[in-house]
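Researcher: Here's the sequence for the chain we discussed earlier.
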Amino acid sequence: MPEPATLTLLGTGFIAMGVRYLRTKYRSMKPKFDRIVGLILLVAFAPIIGLTALLVKLTSRGPAFYKQERVGEHGRTFNIIKVRTMRPDAETKSGPVWADAHDSRVTLVGGFLRRSHLDELPQLVNVVRGEMSLVGPRPERPHFVQQLRERIPGYDQRLTVKPGITGLAQVRAGYDHALRDVRRKVKLDTMYAQRMCWWVDFIIIVRTMGKFVDSGERRG
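Model: Thanks. This is the structure I predict for it:
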């Protein structure tokens, strides 16, 4: 009869194999799940997206939506879609720069949309297209990806999964103010890429909804 220690080791091995199998299975199911849920949410939020777009058009010149090139899974680029929250000429003189919580380029209505995260809703189109996931590392611009690859070892590990509307770094960290903030987010994104499963995604979505409700209560 096997020794208790041997049985424990075998049991631990079987559990680890089971966890790996479930994660692999989830990875294969996630794209279809994202597209189905993304389409349902897009239809449900269409009136809100329309109202926010109209509000932007009525309060500032320029288009209601904007597209911006981002780097997605395995380095493939795509155009992310968001409700415009900045002035149309925001980066004409400065070039690409990171946004922060008190960005002077953000319009009055844009500030409200950012705090409420309503400007993110059009990204559901990217989810339905298969360019993004509901949960995953936030996609960055090519200009910054090139810089961060040179400064942060292992940065490309966060590109092994599809980018998301929300992610582990978003629920556990705020805006980037320095390179150390980016390093922390990259660490969280890498952790997510390694441990991604239905339970982790569920927790991130719940926490994202909690932050949304909390921001609404503070405004009220």
